[in-house]
Amino acid sequence: MPGIIEVDDLVKEFRTFERREGLIGALTNLFHRDYRTVRAVDRITFVIKPGEMVGYIGPNGAGKSTTIKMLTGILVPTSGNIRASGYIPWKQRSEYTKTIGVVFGQRTQLWWDIAVVESFQLLRRIYGVSDSDYKARMKRFDEVLELGRYLHTPVRKLSLGERMRCDAAAALLHNPPVLFLDEPTIGLDIVAKENIRAFLKQVNQEFGTTILLTTHDLSDIEELCQRLMIIDHGRLLFDGRLEELKHRLWRESTIKVDFRDREQAQRFEALSLPHIKTEKLGELTYRLTFDREERSTADVIRQVVLNADVLDIAIEEQSIEEVVKRIYLGGVFEAAAR
């Protein structure tokens, strides 16, 4: 199946002016300026298929937002190619924008001083949405996002969570096949985040909307996306399924065991368990860490319970935060390959 978004060898460079400090430096800047070239996106290639929900993450300054701006046609690449919904975004922007929706967490596409419903009506005219489609979609948005209570309120009087609900609806008013989300849940409370996530899941399932999501909230990724792309210093470090990422970069498994009494704990301590690191957490509590390529979790649990009376066993799952933190520290892919 061809991709709805196809990116090939994409590069974006910025030329920045380096200012000198102090009065003498300021005077020197008037007559001589030093520039340097910063490569924000460095030869990125990927394909996104119709209906996929893809997470695109990285530390601050990694190149996430720059990529999104090129994909939406806001920025022109230095080199490389993009084709999205059959268009070249920066060359055919007028036609292309009718096929995409965009939500920027820190900015709104709604008019600040007029009621929300008036912004929706203006967007309806801009995108040429028919009256029947407009009414059906507004009804749907109200059912899922409870927009009815905000429609006659000026945008400037909305809370951040309320505004994000309205922005998400506005981005999907013309039912675009592709939706770009740049930090859509930033600054929201737990309830507001859950509302936005549930809405995005429903849109993806019902309409097959392709979604590319950038975020610092890794819970968004775990809740919404099966595929994950990681960028750092402008380069694409990983492109694959979340479970594959965890398998490649975190092969350790951890089990916490609580024994019934001190006698049982001592029986466990007397065991010989090769390739298992044991850490005592309390008088009767121990943590066992092992490489799952060498020992299976089931085998470790079996050896423990056959030799000592166990009160409780808990398998401690790694979090995506831990995995991504290791990536940002650098060198983890090379280490995983060895």
Q: Please identify the top-level CATH class of the largest domain.
A: Alpha Beta
Separate helix tally = 13
Q: Into how many domains do the coordinates divide?
A: 2
Strand content: 25-35%
Based on Cα principal axes, name the global outline.
globular
- State the CATH superfamily name of the largest domain: P-loop containing nucleotide triphosphate hydrolases
Radius of gyration over C-alpha positions, nearest whole angstrom: 26 Å
Q: Uncertain spans, ≥5 residues at pLDDT below 50?
A: none
Tell me what the CATH architecture of the largest domain is: 3-Layer(aba) Sandwich
The termini sit apart by 34 Å
State the strand order across the main sheet.
5-6-7-3-8-9
CATH fold assignment of the largest domain: Rossmann fold
Number of strands: 13
Order of helices and strands: EHEEHEHEHHHEHEHEEHEHEEHEHH
Structural class: alpha/beta
Main sheet summary: 6 strands, mixed
* Average of the residue pLDDT scores: 86
Amount of helix: 25-40%
Can you describe what's shown?
The chain is an alpha/beta fold and 338 residues long. It has 2 domains: 209 residues, Rossmann fold, CATH 3.40.50; 67 residues, Alpha-Beta Plaits. It is built from 13 helices and 13 strands. The chain has a 6-stranded mixed sheet with strand order 5-6-7-3-8-9, sandwiched between helices.
Properties at a glance:
338 residues, alpha/beta, Rossmann fold, Alpha-Beta Plaits, 2 domains, 6-stranded mixed β-sheet, 4-stranded antiparallel β-sheet, 13 helices, 13 strands
